[in-house]
């Protein structure tokens, strides 16, 4: 590693109108009023602590995730964007994405977000089907999802992603394709199309719904891939499809093992740091519960301290880096060049041996690129296990 990788910023807004039964993210049901101003102050203080450790590195992207960031006012989002620019600086073409729930979408909010600097939206549609939306515990209707797209465009935000799920309870292939066709009719330049998985610590885990069988899931995947390709959306990651030039730059930075600061309750970050002639990579997570996070900043106090909001921080051992790097790189349809391993980790290609050689002999990884073959992409977990530290 000779130069620092690009730097992104993730800002977590932890509140939702209600918790969805499949969600294992750090999200919490909002009360009658949100502590918006206090939370903005705390996140800005969190940025101060991170900036003191990172130094002068401009941001290439910002992502507001949740939770439901669209519960926050445009003024609050604007204050966080302005605060980030003041502390870190922005690359000239910075991408600033905000996740929005169609059930909380308002025209004036979208216009305000655009004026504040948001230039990309990610709309959590998940389905247009009323029955499926009910199964998923979503607060919006299919029509409200359509309205949200229209509002975004009228607010001047043409760059948007639609989140859409498949493999839903009792879903048939024709139902999944109907959902996808309705999404494609809206002409998004990016679509995240991913299969529902049952995660621990969710309502679906405690009370599992009936999901489609493997053959039906394979049919959904095959038919959906054909629809996406016909619509001009190219797959560039396991569940991400985009028109040319519209891949999510924030997520690409994750998958290409770039750096990212995580601020807000439960946020995670990964930072490359230099000490003398040595480089190392740190991962840091922030305290999860919003009330605990806010308590790190006493009312009226401006915090200046070292990672006062952190719950956990550790330095990755060299033996951990091959798996950490490959579990991101192999998600990408085109993988990454071999040279990126040294650029992002300081490791030589020999650090991936003998696993890499074996996988190439088996036809699972391409010969001169860190990229899963068509066959290898079907066995991604097997590929990753090969790079686990002994």
Characterization of this structure:
- This protein has 390 residues and is α/β, with parallel strands linked by helices.
- The chain folds into 2 domains: 7-255, Alpha-Beta Barrel (TIM Barrel), CATH 3.20.20; 321-385.
- Helix 6 (173-185) runs parallel beside helix 8.
- It is 36% helix and 22% strand.
- It is built from 14 helices and 14 strands.
- Helix 3 links the parallel strand 5 (90-100) and strand 6.
- It is globular and about 55 Å long.
- The model has no long low-confidence stretch (mean pLDDT 93).
- The strands form 3 sheets. The chain has a 9-stranded mixed beta sheet, sandwiched between helices. A 3-stranded antiparallel beta sheet has the order 12-13-14, with no helix packed on it. A two-stranded parallel ribbon has the order 2-3.
- One of its GO terms (biological process) is porphyrin-containing compound biosynthetic process.
How are the SSEs ordered, and which strands pair?
Blueprint: E1 7-13, E2 15-16, E3 28-29, H1 36-54, E4 59-66, H2 74-88, E5 90-100, H3 107-116, E6 120-126, H4 130-135, H5 142-154, E7 160-166, H6 173-185, E8 190-195, H7 203-206, H8 214-230, E9 234-237, E10 240-242, H9 249-255, E11 259-263, E12 268-275, E13 278-286, H10 290-295, E14 310-315, H11 321-329, H12 339-345, H13 355-361, H14 380-385
Helix pairs in contact: 1-2, 2-3, 6-8
């Amino acid at each position: 590693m000779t130069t620092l990788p690009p730097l992104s910023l993730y800002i977590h807004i932890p509140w939702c109108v209600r918790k969805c039964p499949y969600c294992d993210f750090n999200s919490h049901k909002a009360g009658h009023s949100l502590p918006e101003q206090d939370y903005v102050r705390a996140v800005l203080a969190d940025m101060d602590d991170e900036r003191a450790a990172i130094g002068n590195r401009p941001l290439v992207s910002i992502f507001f995730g949740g939770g439901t960031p669209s519960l926050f006012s445009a003024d609050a989002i604007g204050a966080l964007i302005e605060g980030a620019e003041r502390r870190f600086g922005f690359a000239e073409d910075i991408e600033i994405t905000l996740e929005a729930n169609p059930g909380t979408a308002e025209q004036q909010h979208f216009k305000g977000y655009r004026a504040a600097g948001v230039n990309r939206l990610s709309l959590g549609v998940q389905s247009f089907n009323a029955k499926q939306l009910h199964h998923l515990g979503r607060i919006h209707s299919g029509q409200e999802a359509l309205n949200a797209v229209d509002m975004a465009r009228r607010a001047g935000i043409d760059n948007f992603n639609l989140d859409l799920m498949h493999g839903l309870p009792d879903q048939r292939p024709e139902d999944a394709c109907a959902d996808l066709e309705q999404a494609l009719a809206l002409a998004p330049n990016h679509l995240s199309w991913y299969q529902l998985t049952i995660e621990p610590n969710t309502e679906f885990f405690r009370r599992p719904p009936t999901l489609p069988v493997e053959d039906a899931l394979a049919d959904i995947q095959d038919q959906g891939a054909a629809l996406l390709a016909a619509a001009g959306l190219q797959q560039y990651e396991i569940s991400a499809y985009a028109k040319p030039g519209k891949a999510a730059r924030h997520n690409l930075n994750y998958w290409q093992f770039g750096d990212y600061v995580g601020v807000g309750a439960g946020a995670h970050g990964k930072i490359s740091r230099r000490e003398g002639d040595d480089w190392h990579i740190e991962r840091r997570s922030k305290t999860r519960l919003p009330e605990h996070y806010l308590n790190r900043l006493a009312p009226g106090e401006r915090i200046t301290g070292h990672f006062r909001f952190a719950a956990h921080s550790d330095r990755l051992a060299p033996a951990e880096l091959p798996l950490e790097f490959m579990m991101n790189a192999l998600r990408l349809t085109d993988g990454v060049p071999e040279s990126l391993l040294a650029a992002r980790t300081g490791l030589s290609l020999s650090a991936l041996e003998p696993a890499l050689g074996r996988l190439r002999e088996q036809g699972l990884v391409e010969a001169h690129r860190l990229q899963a073959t068509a066959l290898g992409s079907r066995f991604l977990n097997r590929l990753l296990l090969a790079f686990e530290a002994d």
